[in-house]
Each structure stands twice: as structure tokens, then as C-alpha cells.
Amino acid sequence: MANRKALGRGLKALIPDVPEGKQENNSNIQFIEVVKVSPNPFQPRETFDQEKYIELKNSIAEKGIVQPITVRRYNDGYQLIAGERRLRSVSDLGLNTIPAFIIDVESDEEMMELSIIENIHREDLNPIDIANSYKRLIEECNLTQESVAQKVGKDRATVANFLRLLKLPKPIQESLQSGEITMGHARAILSLEKNKEQIDLWKKTVKNSLSVRKVEQLVRGYSQKKKPAAPATLDTKTYYIEDAENKLRTKLTTKVLVKPKKKGGVIEIEYYTEEDLNRLIAVIYGE
Predict the structure, then answer these.
(1) Distance CA 88, CA 219 (A)
(2) What does the DSSP 8-state code read for residue 104?
(3) CA 172, 280, 44 angle in degrees (round to 5)?
(4) Dist CA 105 CA 78 (whole Å)
(5) Rg (the chain; Cα; Å)
(6) CB 166 within 8 A of CB 131
(7) Strand 77-82 to strand 69-74: parallel, antiparallel, or no bridges (unpaired)?
């Protein structure tokens, strides 16, 4: 993990190995005809903020394109890799040409990887789009969670936590996607086991504009209601057990249950994929 290289934004994200001093050489940047640029079939972004799009279009109308789009040669024209909103803005403004950085991409798989990674590094990409991007890198580019983490410059636990968001019911995913709730809310809701409980808590969260801390408190309340009455001899251990569960959840970043018995007890650690299991093993062994 020590030699992990986090990709940057824009052109550096797509060509991270450009030698120092050659990034200002614009020999590969050309003004190309807008009509010759076909859409990116691997676009990972599912939603666009309309207000930000209008701001971008107004900025381009006033000052022009500050950052070129990135394309590859495709048939008799070009195929977009990065810069869909810039391309849309220029088209809406009726401009005929747009500056583009033209790079060589050998395969559709490589193009998909470049498109997804470039989008992940944009600050306005919502958590669900990021999660779906990680999923596509794993499923369509045959990468492991560890490989994805290295390519995007994140910890494997972070990648795993984003992927877990895709287990939420669709309405909650859409709420997170639109910015109605935050990732903190979503992760708290995800701690509940049943979809109905998750939906009920989500509705309550949205209706009452609950804070993340309040949602976490409600989640603990749900858990307490579901627990069977413990033997009298275990009553004094309730706080200790809750504290132990919270510490383990924080350390392992997954759901953990401590189930006491008359003598000893059982610790249940939940995992979601084979990669997630390997991550937990690495954490437990201190690797």
C-alpha cells in the first residue's frame, strides 16, 4: 500500500505518467468539431446537478472553455472519455468546435476504467454514483476491491463501505443520490437488518430533518427493542456489551453483534463479499 498512487483530476487523472515539464505541450490538444464527438457509453455519472450545469454553461459563454474535454479517436470522429457537461454546454450554446485532448486508448475496457476513475475524483459525484463506479470496476474490469482502492487512492475499507450502500432499498439510494440525506445517514440506516425498518427510519429522517447523530440513536433503539430479555445475571453487562460492539464496529467498519451467554458468549462479524472477508482478516491480524 505504500506505493499507492492517487490519480489526480482532469488530464492528470487520465495520463498520470506524463513526464514533468511536458504537461504544457499542447500538441495533442486540438479544436475538434462538436458534431464529431459521440457520447461516452461507459459514463458512470447517473445524475447531473442542473444548477451547477447552468453555472458551467454561463461560465463558458462568458470566458470560454478553461479545461479541454478528453476524447479518443473513434470511427471517423471521436468518442468522449471525460467532460460530458462541458460538451453539452458547448452544444447548447451553439458552438461548432471544442478544445479536446486526444489520447490513445487501446480497448473499451481501458476506456471504461479511465472514464470511471476520472469521474470518481470529481467532488460533486454523489455516493451512489461512486459506489456504482466501484462496482463496475470490479465486475466489468475484473478488478478486486484492493485493486480498485489502489487505483483511486483510497483504503480498501472505504471502497467496501461505499459498496455496502448498494444494499440499501432503491428509494433510500435515490434519496442519497439526490442529496436529500447524507452518507452518514445512509450508513446508520444500513445498520438495520430489515428493509422495512430501513425504509421506516429513512422516512422519519427525511420528514423530521434528523441529524446523523439522532439517526444513530434511533438505530440503537431499534436494536434494543429486538433484543430478548437477558437473564438477571447479565443485566449488569448491558453497557459493557454495547461498548464492546461499538468499538468492534468502529475498528472493523462492519456490523458486529456480541451475544452473551451464561458463560462467555459469541461475537458475530458480518461481511458482504469475499474481498470484504479478506479485509476483515487483514484488520484482525494487523496487516
Answers:
(1) 43
(2) -
(3) 40
(4) 11
(5) 24
(6) yes
(7) antiparallel
Per-residue model confidence as pLDDT tens digits over 229-275: 555 444 445 667 777 777 787 777 788 888 888 788 888 888 878 77
Residues belonging to the active site = 84
Q: For residue 103, give the DSSP letter.
A: -
Distances (CA, A) of 69 to 11, 83, 191: 9, 5, 41
Could you name the CATH architecture of 27-106?
Alpha-Beta Complex (3.90)
- The angle formed by the CA atoms of residues 199, 204 and 210, to the nearest 5 degrees, is 125
pLDDT digits (tens, 9 = 90+) for 147-178: 888 888 888 888 999 999 999 999 999 999 98
With CA atoms as reference, report the closest residue to 189 among 239, 181, 130: 181
Domain boundaries, the chain: 27-106, 182-224, 227-287
Helices 156-164 and 145-152 meet at what angle, rounded to 10? Answer: 110
The CA distance from 190 to 144, in Å, is 23
For residues 101 and 68, the answer to whether their CB atoms sit within 8 Å is: yes
Q: One-letter amino acid identity for 101?
A: F
Q: Which whole-number Å values give the CA distances from 222 to 102, 240, 265, in the listed order?
A: 54, 18, 22
CB contact at 8 A, 104 and 114:
no
Can you give the pTM of this predicted structure?
0.57
Gap between the terminal Cα atoms of the chain: 11
